[in-house]
Write a structure and sequence with these properties.
The protein has 136 residues and is an all-alpha fold. The protein is built from 9 helices and no strands.
Length: 136
């Protein structure tokens, strides 16, 4: 009986060589891939980088970037400007003083917003609870 089992798998590989006729057609498709005329066109595109040396002449004119280090003197003035943001903090502390006087921001408005959130949460909970009960 074990000898009969190898005989049956041997018959299945016999069917497999019939399928190998299709891979023979695949090398025919590789003949199409040998048409590498398009990659030879890509080196023709490399002629465009040869036009870029004209652009390299423009970077040789770099006297303006030398002026940028002169602009580094301005960042030295920036620490002086840091004293001004400290002054900007002082007006920010003055701004909260008028706000508590009565711009309409009261504890009642806070409780109204909290209450509305609770109502929305309760409504969402009720909807989810009903959806859970219906399919069951």
């Amino acid at each position: 009986e074990p000898t009969a089992i190898p005989t049956e798998p041997t018959q299945e590989p016999t069917a497999a060589p019939t399928a190998t006729a299709e891979p023979t057609e695949a090398p025919t498709a590789t003949a199409e891939s040998t048409a590498t005329i398009e990659p030879t066109e890509a080196p023709t595109t490399t002629v465009v980088p040869t036009e870029e040396p004209a652009a390299t002449e423009e970077p040789t004119a770099t006297p303006e970037p030398t002026e940028l280090p002169t602009a580094t003197a301005e960042p030295t003035e920036a620490p002086t400007a840091t004293a001004e943001p400290t002054a900007a903090i002082a007006p920010a502390t003055e701004a909260p003083q008028p706000t508590p006087e009565g711009d309409g921001d009261t504890d009642a408005s806070l409780w109204v917003s909290v209450g509305s959130l609770l109502v929305l949460a309760a409504a969402a909970g009720a909807v989810l609870y009903q959806r859970r009960k219906l399919p069951a």
